[in-house]
Each structure stands twice: as C-alpha cells, then as structure tokens.
Amino acid sequence: MKLLSQLRTSSFQLALLYMVVFATSVFLLLAFIYWRTAGFMTAQTDETIEAEIAGLAEQYRGRGVNGLITIIRERVARDPNAKSIYLLTTDDFLKLAGNIETWPEGSRSESGWINFTLNESVGWTGPERLARARIFEVQGGLRLLVGRDVDELTNLKRVIETAINWGMGITLGLALLGGFLMSRSTTRRIEIINNTSRRIMNGHLSLRIPTRGTDDDFDQLAENLNQMLDRIVYLMEGIRHVSDSIAHDLRTPLTRLRNQLENTLMSVDNDEAREQAGRAVAEADQLLATFNALLRIARLETRGNAADMKPVSLDELVTDACELYEALSEDKDQSFEQSLESGVMIEGDRDLLFQMVSNLIDNAIKYTPEHGVIGVAVRKEGAEAIFEVRDSGIGIPDAEKDQVFQRFYRVGKSRSLPGNGLGLSLVSAVAEIHQGRIVLSDTHPGDTPPGLTVTVRMPAFTEARKRIRAAQAEQPADSAGAEARIATESTGAETH
C-alpha cells in the first residue's frame, strides 16, 4: 500500500517522465550506432564483392571465357573455407566453374543483389550458412554469380542487437530504480513536512518543520514555513493576550458593579426600580459568566496536556452529571434517556471532564423543546471511550458544524436565546487536553428539526495502562506539588 502511494506521487511521476525521455534518447543513440555499424559492415561486404567482380571482369577482357573459368577455379582452390562464392554457367544454366552447383532462389533486387542460404538446394556440402551475392550476365550468353559468406556478419549483427536490447533493459531498470530512489527521498522529506503540518493543525503550534542544513529547496521551504508559523503564533498570542487581559481586568470592576447593584436592589422599595436593578444584576451576571468562560478557556489552552491525569470512570462521572440535570429536564417535561455501559475508564482530569459533560447535557436540555427527547450514552468501541449526547432540538446546519467551536460563534437560530457562544469552545479545549475528538451530526437526518448528536471520542484507559500507572505509583513522585485546579463554576455558556 505504501509502495502504491509512492508510485502516485508527483516526484515519482516526474522521475518516470525523465526515465522515458532518457530511455528514448538512449534508444535513439543505440539505434544510430547499430545503423552505422551494420551499414558499414554491409557496405564493406558489398565493396569486397564489387572488387571481386572488377577483378574477374578484367580477366575476362584480357583472357576471354577460358581465362575467366581458370581464375574462378584458382580462387575457389585458394579459399578452402569458401568465404567467397562463385558460379559461372551457360545461358541454359550449365555449370562451367564455381563452388556451388545451381542458382539460388531468393529475392533479387534491380541492381542484381541477392541474399540466400547456402544449403543442399544449391549443392552446398558444408554447414548451412547465409550468403550475399550479385548476379549479372557476361557477353556470350554466360551468367556469373559472385558473392560472400555473410554468416559471421549476420551473427555479429545479432550480437549487437542482443547487446542493444540488454542495454535498453538495463537502462530502463536503472532509470526506474533511480527514479524510485529519487522519488522516495523526495517523498520522505515531503512526508516529514506533511506530518509536522498535520500535528501543527491538530494544535501543537510549538512544533516546527525540521531542516537538514543543506540549504536546498526543501530547507528553504521549511524555513519559510517556520517563519510563517512563528508569525502566526505571535499574532495569535497577541490577540489571545489582549482578550485575556481585557477579561481579567474587567472582571474585578464588573464584580464590584454587580455587588453594588445587588445592594441597591436590596435597599430600594419601589417595585419598578427593583425590577430594573434586578435586570441589571442579571446582565452583570451574564457578563461575569462570559469573562469567566474566556479566562477558563485561555487557562485550558495554556495548560495543554499538563492537566492532572488520573483514571476516571466515565460512566460514573456521567451518572453524577445526569442526576444533577435530570430535575431541570423534568421541569420541561422532557424524556431523559440514559444508556451507560459500566466499566468504561479513561485517563483524565475529573473536574474538567465533569464540566465538559455538564455543558453538553445543559445545552441539550436548553435547546430541546418541551416534551422533547434527550439521550445520554456511554460505551466503549475498540480502544476508544465514547460519550454521546442526543437531543431533538433545532440542530446545527452542516455548513456551520465546524464553526461552532470558535469563540462567540452562535448559530443564527439560537441568537434569540441566552448565552455567549463559548460552550463548545470550552468543550473543545477539554477534549483536546484528553486527546479526544468531537463529532457533530444530526439526530434525525432529514427531519425538521433534525436535532443534534454530539459524540466525544477519547482514548480508553486499558488494563496495560493501568499496570503502568500502578508501577509508576510505587515510585517516588518527581514533582513537588500538584498544579492548581481550574474552577468549575457554571459558565451559563451555550453551544448553538
């Protein structure tokens, strides 16, 4: 599977294209060499035959037919290996001289050249071989064939062809291997960048893409991306610091203002003034809840994975939260269904987990109409512990499901309801600390209203992990003290 994914990479495809271009160039080069080499050897053979013919023609002009017959016989006698082929016949094909008996069969060119096989059909007594000759007519009605044994030349051509084929195969193999190695090296560096980018997108903003120190294209790309990440983190930290500072600085005067309003509410006798003071106190409480939620989210994000992690029974924790909110559900005459699998353990901070569960149940009750149905479930699927809350409320459009985790984001349908849009931001921060992920889906797809199902998936606390924890508990503690807990007061925040 990994090999197939590498074959689909652009680097391998680029290497494959280079291999095709390189192999084509090598093929054309070898074809040119073969054409020039084979053509030169064939031309040399033809020149030798032409020289033989020129010599015989000169003898014929000086000594006549008898002289021609004599010189042919002499040349045949001096060539026991029969490298040269001769045949002189009369007009009715009666042999006069030569080392073959009859005219060969074969395709004859207009210039008189013929390629044939030396075998029994032409009266050849030796092993079968290939020959090339030229045929022409001599004055007086005689026919003359002069040729050469080209079997060695043909074998040499075959050797060259075989070498070219092997050379092409080796070239393609080496090019393919080189392309694979080159693409694998490139893919490894790209995969490092991708893996680091994915981890950064998952919230590990302190990570940076490693470099090799070679100052090549990948190093320059990594350095530019790292500088961009540094700039983004700097800007994010600046915005977060400003919002956190505002929340922190305004919480104290708001608290004093709220207390003064409450004192005023208790001191006035006029009903209308008491009502106005009561509304002002409620608004101040809402502002304080918003600032507390902002500070809590900021502390969670800063705290990261440094939360006080201990084995927690998820089903027992959810049971406690359900008991707390069941009365609120009864006030709206809602059906509160529970399906809690026992023995589902996770590793986490119980207070933070309780706040996450409480927020989700509170929102389900808030956005489910009277006589609606709310379902709470806990189960284990493989290596994951699942906490799920279902409601039959207004739901969240698919286009906005990824945006509700942003601070202060509220779905249009819920803007008329009380809240500040920080509920799911807090839930998301707690889930991230516990290496969990949140999935939003419709409870009743296609219905109106569709409802909302919030599924939180977290790593289950396995028996092997329990034994590791037990072994660590027997060792002396490394830290001098535990980190202070985050307050778990109700935020009054909502998700939609």
From TrEMBL:
The chain crosses the membrane at residues 12-35, 163-182. Residues 184-237 form the HAMP domain. Residues 245-462 form the Histidine kinase domain. Residues 254-290 form a coiled coil. Residues 471-496 are annotated as: Disordered. InterPro entries: HAMP_dom (IPR003660), HATPase_C_sf (IPR036890), HATPase_dom (IPR003594), His_kinase_dom (IPR005467), HisK_dim/P_dom (IPR003661), HisK_dim/P_sf (IPR036097), Sig_transdc_His_kin-like_C (IPR004358), TCS_sensor_his_kinase (IPR050428). This is histidine kinase. It comes from Marinobacter metalliresistant.
